[in-house]
Specification:
Rossmann fold, 4-stranded antiparallel β-sheet, 6-stranded mixed β-sheet, alpha/beta, 249 residues, 8 helices
């Protein structure tokens, strides 16, 4: 069952007197429990697509259906509620509140939604265990490493049990070793929690953790690499690098 679907998705921007086609008719679907990576050259439309899929921006044409809700027919308030209840976001630069502790940052989406935190204590504790930050729950962001801050961001994205997690360059601000830890956590969230995850990444190694990699070029889907039957990570990497090299020719 598709938890997220885009149909003929188009997005145009006006730059001076020129119209830029960031997306030019994208058809895209993500199944429940699937891990999908989106890759492409700079300017291919990756981040634009992610923002449209998460309801952070509106399409010029076409439609996005998120957890059964068509975003194009919703007003801003309705779209905000659908996004709040169905999407967990992970950003490259973490976006943690500096005055809050690890535990408070994880709980923030629940606080915003007016949820009683006592009811979610076990959930928060379980997520801190999942991301390996039980002993850092009282620390503030400036007391954490970059990798630890991104792990807080992952726990925060998962705390509401969203229909889908969208991650924009989740390893882009991290060294390769820490990035591998972050990708392993996202993979585990699919395998152990049944979470659906979509990431935008420029990192071919990060994409090897995904079930499928969608390749964008000039606002179009240029290809899809299906790795679900490829267990060898080296072979997955070879496939992805080869496809990215072909895109640039």
């Amino acid at each position: 069952m598709a938890i997220l679907e885009a149909r003929d998705l188009q997005k145009q921007y006006k730059m001076g007197e020129h119209i830029v086609n960031a997306l030019a008719g994208v058809d895209f679907a993500v199944q429940k429990g699937e891990f999908v990576a989106i890759m492409g050259p700079s300017g291919s439309g990756k981040s634009t697509l992610l923002h449209l899929l998460g309801g952070l921006d509106k399409a010029s044409e076409g439609d996005v259906t998120l957890a059964g809700q068509r975003l194009s027919v919703l007003n801003d308030k309705q779209a905000t509620l659908v996004r709040r209840h169905n999407v967990g976001f992970i950003f490259q630069f973490f976006n943690l509140l500096p005055t809050l502790t690890t535990e408070e940052n994880v709980a923030l989406p629940l606080i915003i939604d007016g949820k009683p935190l006592r009811r979610y204590e076990a959930r928060i504790t379980g997520l801190l265990e999942l991301v390996g930050l039980t002993d850092r729950r009282g620390h503030k962001p400036d007391q954490l490493s970059g990798g630890e801050q991104q792990r807080v961001a992952i726990a925060r994205a998962l705390v509401t049990e969203p229909a889908i997690v969208l991650a924009d360059e989740p390893t882009g601000n991290l060294d390769s070793k820490t990035g591998a830890v972050i990708m392993d956590l996202l993979r585990r969230s699919c395998d152990e929690l049944g979470q659906t995850v979509v990431i935008v990444t420029h990192d071919s190694r990060a994409a090897t953790y995904a079930d499928r990699t969608v390749l964008l070029k000039d606002g179009h889907i240029a290809g899809i690499i299906d790795c679900r039957d490829v267990d060898d990570m080296t072979e997955r990497l070879r496939m992805i690098i080869g496809a990215m090299e072909a895109l640039s020719t």
